Amino acid sequence: METLPMTTAKSSERRGRSKQIQTSKPSVVLAFFSCLAWLYVAGRLWQDAENRTLLSNFLKKSMEQRPKVLTVEDKLMLLGCKDLERRIVEAEMDLTLAKSQGYLKNQLLQSGSSSGKKLLAVIGVYTGFGSHLNRNVYRGSWMPKGDALKKLEERGVVIRFVIGRSANRGDSLDRKIDAENRETKDFLILEGHEEAQEELPKKAKFFFSTAVQIWDAEFYVKIDDNIDLDLEGLIGLLDRSRGQESAYIGCMKSGDVVTEEGRQWYEPEWWKFGDGKSYFRHAAGSIFVLSRNLAQYININSASLKTYAHDDTSVGSWMMGVRATYKDDNRFCCSSINRDKVCSMF
């Protein structure tokens, strides 16, 4: 009977120890994660401190290399740059003025003008990739070819078919035009222009800009490839018009702006022409003439000149911005019944 209390005490001691062991395991896990967190924080703080040290050293070196006070040489260099910039601006202004007065030396003049003799006219006949038959008809009718074309240039008149390049540069369309030009030598190829119907208004800018840089002439004539031309009649008319500055010659017209999409002569920007929806006065696109200074104006300002859906209205809008002398001549009305007209529709 005396041994029973001892047994009870031992069992109580074992239960106490098991509780101490069970309660110590979460504490160990918590301590482990606390160490990991401390190591992570300490590592980041050390890394940030090292980055700050590197950045401080870099800024210190940069400040040491940078001169605190501008030297006399630095000031002279700064003043020299400003003076050079001023002279560049003045040179650009002088160049623009020289271009407007006819001093264009960036390309050699061709076909008679290289000898210093001023041509009467440069005639550009618009053509396309699919107009080979039309060109042959022209060469067999009013347009000279071969030696006759050279003799005409000696008289002061240059005629060229005007065409751009294919959208796919160097394709079969371009190669055919190059081959035809090597044989006939009667093309003016506009390298920067893409030959397409929707690009036709821009073709006028490229034609006049290119022609005025290549040939020194009194007049520059644009002709469509669907008219028959009285060449001698045109030459006589232009010869009697020599010396006319800012001449804009053609069959002048105006008319309603076509606002319905899908109709012929549709103008997408019709809303710009006011409530009356009427075009300003302009020369019909079949044939018109610009004097040299107007062609130069297009050349100098071609980058900023606005084009509309049609080339004749586009050119007419450009002429509104200068002091052009409009010369309405019904001999340029190709569809009229005048006997002395210089053109007629095919």
What characteristics describe this protein?
single chain, 346 residues, alpha/beta, seven-stranded mixed β-sheet, two-stranded antiparallel ribbon
Describe the structure.
- The protein has 346 residues and is α/β, with parallel strands linked by helices.
- The chain contains nine helices and nine strands.
- The protein is elongated, with a radius of gyration of 41 Å.
- The N and C termini lie far apart (144 Å).
- Mean pLDDT is 81; it is low at 102-115.
Shape: elongated
Major pleated sheet: 7 strands, mixed
Strand order of the largest sheet: 3-2-1-4-7-6-8
State which percent range the strand residues make up. Answer: 15-25%
Q: How would you spell out the order of helices and strands?
A: HHEHHEHEHEEHEEHHEE
Let me know the average pLDDT: 81
User: Which structural category fits the helices and strands?
Assistant: alpha/beta
Radius of gyration (CA) equals 41 Å
Report the strand count: 9
How many DSSP H or I helices? 9
Helix amount? 40-55%
Question: Which stretches of 5+ consecutive residues score pLDDT under 50?
Answer: 102-115
- Give the termini separation: 144 Å
